[in-house]
Amino acid sequence: MDATIQHNKCRIALDVMGGDFAPQNNILGAKEALKLDKSIEITFVGKRNEITKFLSEQKFDKQDYSIIDADEVIEMNDVPTEAIKSKKKSSIVVGLNLVKDNTVDAFLSAGNTGAMLTASTLILGRIKGVGRPTIGTPIPTKRGGVCTLIDSGTSVDCRPNHLLEYAILGSIFVKGMYGVENPTIGLLSIGEEDSKGNELTLAANKLLRKSGLNFVGNVEGRDILAGNVDIVICDGFVGNVILKFAESIADWLKTKIKSYMNESFINKIKTLVAKGIFKNLFSPFDYQRQGGVPLLGVDGISIIGHGKSSPLAIKNMIFNARDIYSKNLVNKFKEAIKNYGK
Amino acid sequence: MDATIQHNKCRIALDVMGGDFAPQNNILGAKEALKLDKSIEITFVGKRNEITKFLSEQKFDKQDYSIIDADEVIEMNDVPTEAIKSKKKSSIVVGLNLVKDNTVDAFLSAGNTGAMLTASTLILGRIKGVGRPTIGTPIPTKRGGVCTLIDSGTSVDCRPNHLLEYAILGSIFVKGMYGVENPTIGLLSIGEEDSKGNELTLAANKLLRKSGLNFVGNVEGRDILAGNVDIVICDGFVGNVILKFAESIADWLKTKIKSYMNESFINKIKTLVAKGIFKNLFSPFDYQRQGGVPLLGVDGISIIGHGKSSPLAIKNMIFNARDIYSKNLVNKFKEAIKNYGK
Prior knowledge:
Two copies of one chain form a homodimer.
Chain A: E1 10-15, H1 24-36, E2 40-46, H2 48-57, E3 65-69, H3 80-86, H4 91-100, E4 106-109, H5 113-124, E5 134-140, E6 146-150, H6 160-178, E7 185-188, H7 199-209, E8 215-219, H8 222-226, E9 231-233, H9 236-247, H10 249-261, H11 265-273, H12 275-282, H13 287-290, E10 292-296, E11 301-305, H14 311-326, H15 329-339
Parallel strand pairs in A: 1-2, 1-4, 2-3, 4-11, 6-9, 7-8, 7-9
Antiparallel strand pairs in A: 5-6, 5-10, 10-11
Helix pairs in contact in A: 1-14, 3-5, 4-5, 6-7, 6-15
């Protein structure tokens, strides 16, 4: 793919088969996105018959979309590496090949995450100089912004140079997507001093110190929600654990509030009065709003959505893809990695 | 120390110099504990003059305590290994030697955590068969109980057998302290399947599977607050990061509630009405209530408190020590480790 050619329209291929509520949520999300932004062209990838049936029920205008048939589905419990080889006509394999061939500018799927990771790396290829593609996930901070956690679960058992790559890719991503000039980078460790950490972080700290990036040093678990840096770098094992812990906070809060409410009638009244506050507490952890997360470091735009994506999540995922495309981020990643160390 | 001899009274040595609010909070906490439980004997360890002065101001009854002079202090920024060697008359070194000599049954300090860890291991020694002493921290779950996270920051770069040891020690601790019969143990990883994880957890999973412990398999970050197991085992790097992340939730919540409150007058009223709910949300993360955490795997009772310990925290720390002593946990650890693999 030659990503230097930017079209007026952003051509997006959407996996209609991926996700727990496919195809309806996927198609409804696309409809909403098309309504709001005329610069988007949507290609639905999946079982043509199912798509056509659903689209006619929804009274879609035929000129708004195209369909690419993919009559196999990589299921959630399929083993990624095997499924990619055996299901060549699956929506994920077909969709990513559309990006590779430059037929579309981005591919989006709420299907099997492992398959998306593996297939994106194999089909689109890694950007030259990138050892391991990664995912950064924005976590809402108390300052109102986000702290992007990289790697949030793509690679375990990282080497120090992988963490350096995450910092380079993360800097470009956070600047491009959130408009943060020269974002601050922290290395997740168990103490702020450079001498604190495990083998991996001690070595990565040294690489980051001489990287020329806006590296502020080690940060701790508490600095994420506090928003003390724009980007927190860690191994994918740690990132995944933190992310899943963070996702469980809303549920914890809901249970605590419910139990308070059930203690007495007066507590019930108080809770009802205060309803608006809770929305404010839960919504930052609502991953539907965020849509999907792009795989950073592959040569093309591949966005991975949550299995339980709502139409809203699909719509936001489409807008994420559009923004990454219009900001020319893939080329910026390439330049940054190429220029690093020069 | 021969921990098989159980006295009627529990003899506790308290570091009066350790902590950000020493000596006042330490002494006030001890006073509160003595008032509530006559079975406790307190020995204050620290600078005799300072202790005597404060005690007379507080109108302490002389028969309630004894003082052991220790005129050096390991400061918060001292390097633990060096400080232990150079400050032989520090409260931490003197206090732990009192346990070693069987002059007291437990030593408690809210001082330099690293120094407490190192000095406890060096002076009390490790229980035979324990590679690395550890700390387990209870995290409040949505079910109302706690999930104990082991190791919560003592050892980074663990080997698989260390995680097995944590599971053995944790089982005894959680049964003894929280009365949970045959507590369930989960290994913190990035997926529930045995095949998911990093090099460390893949190997530890195999050891735990054949351990005969009540091991339920891998758990994820979300299972901690959900309370899906009684004990979560992990490397100290991961444990420290999770713990500090969890500690920052209350602050995040407070900021979000404050910003909602400041949006309008009506929001302010609503927030005031709902005040009681928030207390319910913050208090589980109030580490003052918990007091301190015992170092598991050393041959004696050594309890490490938070640097910012309030009198309440000190009081609870004293009660923790008393409970560990009266339940004879150190001997139970010894038996469990000795019997393991037989």
